[in-house]
Amino acid sequence: MSKIAVSAIKFFEKLPDTGIRGRMTAKFFSGLLKLIRPRSKVINDNLKLAYPESSEQWRKDITGKVYENLAWTLTETLVLQQDNSQAQKWVKSVKNFEFSQELMTKNKGALYLTAHFGNWELYGNWMAQQEIKHGRKLYVIFTEMRDEDISRYVQNTRERGGMVMMNKDISVMKMSHMLKSGKHIAVLNDVSGTGKMMAPFMGHDATNMAGPAVMAMLTGVPVIPACLYRAAPFEHEAEFFDPVKMPDKNLSHEERLKLIVTECNRAYENFIRKRPELWFWLHKRWRP
């Protein structure tokens, strides 16, 4: 079944463009998602938890917009496969990028945090090409998906966009050494963790992946949250935020770790609450 899905995706790669065909493709995907309503109960439960005062109608409207964003994200990602350089044209404005450019120029390490928000695949393409302009590479931590064929397809599309993929099973020590040597690593870290690191997210405790926080403690490199806001089809606005504040070194290891994870979650929450329809609410973020 997965091979059929990948074949279908590759077929669709040839269809859309930035004009009428792209809009028709996005409309098809959006209509399909709204008909099937994948994980609609998970979306509703997550929204109810994060927005306890919200009405049923508001959650229904947001759910529809979530599907629309996913449809456009898929369509834009397909169009990118025809020419990845289009990513530079689609990001119309960039806020607070000066510090990151300085790090690139001075060959200093950085850890970028982003989320399954807006078009996160476009963000990776765009950011990788920014690094390439400075003679550098963007290393991206990749988590293998359950479906091997789809996982390989996603990994290949990211590599075509200029990203250097690294399996998440690479040791924290090795990645920390890369950061100390001036490398830039990006990670999608807004999903549930498999460990027991609990920290608040959107007002409720959730499990978290502590790896980025550990690397920040080991290296001292800046941890920079960033995202793309969708302005319109094929039009996006990038925003980079102040580096995550590091806690007092006199605190215990566990206290420092939890504070860093909490600050990272707060950074995610800031842009998710600004545009909730752009986040991937289909994920069971608050697993028991």
Brief summary of the model shown:
Helices cover 50% and strands 17% of the residues. By secondary structure, it is an alpha/beta fold.
Residue share in β-strands: 15-25%
Instruction: Bin the helical content.
Output: 40-55%
Runs in which pLDDT lies below 50 for 5 or more consecutive residues are none
Radius of gyration of CA atoms, rounded to a whole number: 19 Å
Write down how many β-strands occur, each being a DSSP E stretch of 2 or more residues. 9
Distance from first to last alpha carbon: 31 Å
H-E order? HHHHHEHEHEHEHEEEHEEH
Global shape: globular
Summarize the main sheet: 7 strands, mixed
What is the overall pLDDT average?
92
What is the topology?
Blueprint: H1 2-13, H2 20-36, H3 40-50, H4 56-80, H5 86-90, E1 91-95, H6 98-105, E2 110-114, H7 120-133, E3 138-142, H8 148-160, E4 163-167, H9 172-180, E5 184-188, E6 198-201, E7 204-207, H10 211-219, E8 223-232, E9 235-240, H11 253-274
Helix pairs in contact: 1-8, 2-4, 3-4, 9-10, 10-11
